[in-house]
Structure formats: C-alpha cells, structure tokens
Here is the input.
Amino acid sequence: MKKVSINLLTNVILLLAGIILIIFHSVPNILIWGSRIIGATFLLPSVAYLIMVAVRHADARTSTDYMGVLPAVGGLCFGLVMMIKPDKFDEILQLLMGVLLVVLGLFHVVYLLLSRSSLNIKGWYHVCPLVVVLCGILSLTVPSLRENVSTVVLITGICLLLFNFTSLQEYLAERRVRRAVTQPSEPVNPHPVVEDDTIKAE
Here is the structure.
C-alpha cells in the first residue's frame, strides 16, 4: 500500500508540474522563477530544522540532531544562492529537465519491456515513453532548441503529461491482470449432478 501511495504522489506531482510548465512556458524568465522556487524548497526545511534544534533543550539534543546541522546549513546556503542569484542556474535547470525526460522515458520503456508478457503490453504502449526519451535527447543535444527556453519548457510540460498517460496505461493493464486472477475462469455449478447408484450398478 505504501508503494502505491508513493507512486501516486509522484505521478500527481509530475502531472501538476507538467500543467504548470505548459501554462507558464511563455512567461519571461521562467527558469529564473523556477530557480527561486527550488531555492525556497531547500531554504525553508533547512531553516525549520535549524530552529527546531536551536530551541530544543541541550539535554534533549541527540547526536542525530547535531549530524543534521551540517546538511541543513548546506541546504540553507544553497537555497539562498538560488534565490539571490537565480540567473546562475538557468543552464543547469535546462540540463536537468532534459536529463529528467530521458530518465523518466527510459524507466517506462524498461518496465514495459519487462512486463510485456505478464501484462499483455501492446506495441503502441511504447510510443509515449519513446517520445519522452527523444524529446529529452533533443533538448540536450540540439543547440538551437536549447537556446529557445520557452520551447524547452513547453516540451518538458507536455512530456510530463505523456509520462502520466503511460503510468495510467500501466495501471489499467495491471488492474486487468488482477481481475483475471481473482475471478474464476469457469462458473461453479451450485447444483452438482449426483450420479444415481442404481444406474451405476446396472
């Protein structure tokens, strides 16, 4: 159950991210705003952790608390840099988006190949993940495409939607297999035929 919840949460986050990227792909300096948001995700948890350790009584602090201070300070500094100098991370974010598409697409390609017999995977199931991989490779290797940030962001958003569509296909295929296993193949006769002993004796 926990695994299903994590997969569902991941798909929901990627779906929302795809929708947001498609809607705001033409916003000027979209990657700068993305850098600031990512910086905030590093900054806020780090600050919260440091405050928690600081207000805790000295006798109640454990070695684990002190071990967490160093990465929290690192996250705090990294988050501050991303928020103060977001333009320094434009190319890094664009690179990460391309790598993300390749990784997500290959994940589904491998899963579908491994499950083609057990889940009765159709050939057209591979179309969306292959498109995602191709878009990731193009965004990493084609200079003219990399220079057009708006197009890269739009392609990334569309590919995240394709990723979720493939996840839905896999879920429906797994559900069909589970139903076929749980349901009996032949109906059970509630009134079994009992042979007559007299006829058998004759």
Summary: The chain has nine helices and no strands. The chain has a mean pLDDT of 78.
